[in-house]
Amino acid sequence: QLVESGGGLVQAGGSLRLSCAASETIFSINSMGWFRQTPGKQRELVAVITNGGSSNYAASVRDRFIISRDNSKNTVTLQMNNLKPEDTGVYYCTAMTGRLYWGPGTQVTVSS
Predict the structure, then answer these.
(1) Band of residue 98 on the pLDDT scale cut at 50, 70, 90
(2) pLDDT band of 93, cuts 50, 70, 90
(3) Which residues are within 8 A (CB) of 81 and not within 5 positions of it... i.e. 6 or more apart?
(4) Distance separating alpha carbons of residues 3 and 23, to the nearest angstrom
(5) Given 9, 53, 95, 112, which residue has the most CB atoms within 10 angstroms?
(6) Parallel, antiparallel, or unpaired: how do β-strands 55-57 and 89-96 relate?
(7) What is the DSSP letter of 82?
(8) Closest CA to 53 of 84, 37, 32
(9) Within 13 Å of residue 16, how many CA atoms lie on the same side as its CB?
(10) Please, is 28 exposed, middle or buried when counting C-beta atoms within 10 Å of its C-beta (0-12, 13-18, 19+)?
(11) Is it the case that residue 24 has pLDDT exceeding 90?
(12) Pick from 23-27, 61-65, 92-96: least confident
């Protein structure tokens, strides 16, 4: 019900853009966001945006990543700039209604 795209392999300092589309079966989405699972760490929130456009970021990405959203299409994107090897991991799209929906995840690998 959430489909992610845009992951891949990039060198440090490069950029990637992740996209996520929610299916029509998900109604009344409040916030949408991205989590990531990096090797050896717990899954963490990367960025979140409400349907009103308010956003919040993890401190480690605040000056490098930009989250945006198209409410009419139920899509969310994450523009990731100046990527670092520690950004490597599986990135999961989420959508919050009365429950939290998770996408299957997309791999992001940043080489040094």
Answers:
(1) confident
(2) very high
(3) 15, 64, 65, 66
(4) 8
(5) 95
(6) unpaired
(7) S
(8) 32
(9) 22
(10) exposed
(11) no
(12) 23-27
